[in-house]
Specification:
- It is a single chain.
- The protein is 47% helix and 12% strand.
- The chain has 466 residues and is an alpha/beta fold.
- The chain has 4 domains: 158 residues, HUPs (Rossmann fold, 3-Layer(aba) Sandwich), CATH 3.40.50.620; 102 residues, Glutamyl-tRNA Synthetase, Domain 3 (Glutamyl-tRNA Synthetase, domain 3), CATH 3.90.800.10; 50 residues; 92 residues, Arc Repressor Mutant, subunit A (Orthogonal Bundle).
- The strands form 5 sheets. Strands 4-5-8-9 form a 4-stranded antiparallel β-sheet. A 3-stranded parallel β-sheet has the order 1-2-3, with helices on one face. The protein has a two-stranded antiparallel ribbon with strand order 6-7.
- The protein starts with a strand and ends with a helix.
C-alpha cells in the first residue's frame, strides 16, 4: 500500500510551500488508494509551539487536505533512544566529545589543504579509557559512522542523484539519548510508519543520503524519494514575508477562499498535459501524477492567486458569501440586517478580489463617507456648477416615492439634467454617496441606502461646496 507523509515542524505557521507539499502527498496517496500521515516533528523543544501545531492542523483541514493518522515525534523519544543504543552496540554510532573550538580548527585545517570540510573521525579512535575520562569532564553528542560508498538516489522527479559517502563525513544524529536530530528521527519514523514515498521540497536533497545511511545501518528498506522544486518569488529569490503573505493563516485573514488557494498551489510546479485550470478535489486526485511535476522552480504569481480567488467568489451565491463574511461585517459595522448585507454583497462582490476587500470597501453603506470638496468636481467644472447640479439632484430625488427609489428610475429621472455630459450629474452623486472615485453605480448605491440616507449625503456634499 502506498503511504505518504507530511512532516512539518511546529516552529511557525503553515507556509504556502508546506501546504503544497502536503497537497501533493495527499493527492498521491488518494490517487493510489493509500494512506496519508501527518507527523509533527516537535523534538526541538525550544522552538516548537502548540499554537503552531494547531495552526498546521486547522489550515490543512481548511484546505480540504485530510490526513488518516497523526503522530508527534515528542511522544516517540524512547524509540529513537533505543535505536541509538542499538547502533552504538553494533559499533555504528559513537560519542563525540569535540568542542566547538576543536571542530572549527579541524575545519580551517581542511580548508587550508583544499579539502571539503567534514568531521575527521577523531573521536572514533578514542580508547575506552579516554572515553571514560572525557565523560567526566565534557559533554558529548552521538555521531554515526559513515560507510565509504556511493549513495545513489533514483529520484522520481529529479532523476538519478549520486552522493559520495566519504564526502559526507560522520554526522551528528543526536545531542543526547533524548534529543534526536532531524536526520535520525525522520528516517526511523518513515521506516516504522511504512512510508513508501517521501515527497518533499528539493531543499531536502542534501538530507536524503544521510537518512539513507541511517536506514541502511538499521536494516530498514529505503522508500522512494521525490523532491519537488522550490517556490520562488517573482524576482526569483526565496519567497519570504517581504513579498507579502506567505502563510495559509495570512491568506485566510486576507480573505482568500480555500478553493482558490487549493487550486493555485496545485498548479505551482504541476500541470496536466491539458490547459485545464479549475479543479475540484475529486478531479485533482484523478489527474495528479508525479510524472507531471516540473523540475524547474515554480514562481509565485500573486496576480494569478487573486484571479483564482475572484473567479471562485463570483461563483458563490450572496448567501454563501454572507456566511463567510458575516462576523467581519459585524466586527467593523455592528449588527446589521441580513437583507441589507445581501444587497451590499450583491453589489460589492463584482469589484472585490477577496472577502476582506469586499467587506472593507463597503464601508460607505454603513458609515458616512468623508471626502474633500475637490473630489466632487467633475472635469473642469466650477464648484458653483457642481453645487447647482447637486441641488437639482436633491430636489428631483425628494419628489420620488420610496417605493420608486429604484436604480433604473433614479437614472432615468436624473439623465435629463445634463444629457450631453452625464458626468456633471453622476460623478458628484457617486462621490457624495461613497466618498470614492470608483464604486458600483450610484443608482444601485442610492437604492441600497434608501431615500433618507441618500438625500442626507447629498446635503452634506452641497455643504462641502458652499
Amino acid at each position: 500500500m502506498v503511504v505518504t507523509r507530511f512532516a512539518p515542524s511546529p516552529t511557525g505557521r503553515l507556509h504556502i510551500g508546506g501546504a503544497r507539499t502536503a497537497l501533493f502527498n495527499f493527492l498521491f496517496a488518494r490517487k493510489n488508494n493509500g494512506k496519508f500521515i501527518l507527523r509533527i516533528e516537535d523534538t526541538d523543544k525550544e522552538r516548537s509551539k502548540k499554537e503552531y501545531e494547531e495552526d498546521i492542523i486547522e489550515n490543512l483541514n481548511w484546505l480540504g487536505i485530510e490526513f488518516d493518522e497523526i503522530f508527534r515525534q515528542s511522544e516517540r523519544i524512547e524509540i529513537y533512544k533505543e535505536k541509538i543504543l542499538e547502533l552504538e552496540k553494533n559499533g555504528l554510532v559513537y560519542k563525540c566529545f569535540c568542542t566547538k573550538e576543536e571542530l572549527e580548527a579541524q575545519k580551517l585545517e581542511q580548508l587550508s589543504q583544499g579539502i571539503a570540510p567534514r568531521y575527521s573521525g577523531r573521536c572514533l579512535k578514542l580508547t575506552k579509557e579516554e572515553i571514560k575520562n572525557f565523560e567526566k569532564t565534557r559533554s558529548y553528542v552521538y555521531r554515526i559512522k559513515i560507510i565509504p560508498e556511493k549513495i545513489v538516489i533514483k529520484d522520481l522527479i529529479k532523476g538519478e542523484i549520486v552522493f559520495d559517502g566519504i564526502l559526507i563525513g560522520d554526522f551528528i544524529i543526536a545531542k543526547s539519548l533524548t534529543e534526536p536530530l532531524f536526520n535520525f528521527a525522520t528516517p526511523i519514523d518513515d521506516a516504522l510508519m511504512k512510508v513508501t514515498h517521501v515527497i518533499r521540497g528539493e531543499d531536502h536533497i542534501s538530507n536524503t543520503p544521510k537518512q539513507i545511511i541511517v536506514l541502511r545501518h538499521l536494516g530498514f528498506s529505503i522508500p522512494q524519494y521525490a523532491h519537488i522544486p522550490m517556490i520562488l518569488s517573482p524576482d526569483y529569490s526565496k519567497l519570504s514575508k517581504r513579498h507579502g503573505a506567505t502563510s495559509i493563516f495570512d491568506f485566510k485573514n486576507e480573505g482568500f477562499l480555500p478553493e482558490a488557494i487549493f487550486n493555485f498551489i496545485l498548479l505551482l510546479g504541476w500541470h496536466e498535459q491539458s490547459d485545464k485550470e479549475f479543479y475540484t478535489l475529486k478531479e485533482a486526485i484523478e489527474a495528479f501524477s508525479l510524472e507531471r511535476v516540473q523540475t524547474k522552480p515554480a514562481v509565485f504569481n500573486e496576480k494569478k492567486l487573486i484571479w483564482f480567488n475572484r473567479q471562485y467568489m463570483l461563483k458563490k451565491s450572496n448567501s454563501e458569501i454572507l456566511k463567510l463574511t458575516y462576523n467581519y461585517f459585524k466586527e467593523l459595522y455592528g449588527e446589521q440586517k441580513e437583507e441589507l448585507l445581501l444587497k451590499v454583497i450583491n453589489l460589492a462582490k463584482e469589484r472585490a478580489n477577496t472577502l476582506k476587500e469586499l467587506v472593507e470597501n463597503s464601508f460607505y453603506f454603513f458609515k458616512e463617507p468623508e471626502y474633500p470638496a475637490e473630489l466632487l468636481i467633475w472635469n473642469k467644472a466650477s464648484k458653483d456648477t457642481i453645487r447647482n447640479f447637486l441641488i437639482k439632484t436633491k430636489e428631483i430625488l425628494e419628489k420620488l416615492d420610496e417605493k420608486d427609489f429604484l436604480p433604473e428610475k433614479i437614472k432615468f429621472i436624473l439623465t435629463p439634467l445634463s444629457p450631453n455630459d452625464l458626468g456633471l450629474v453622476f460623478w458628484p452623486l457617486r462621490v457624495a454617496l461613497t466618498g470614492k472615485e470608483a464604486s458600483p453605480s450610484p443608482f444601485d448605491i442610492a437604492n441600497v441606502l434608501g431615500k433618507e440616507k441618500t438625500i442626507r449625503r447629498i446635503e452634506r456634499a452641497i455643504e462641502k461646496l458652499s
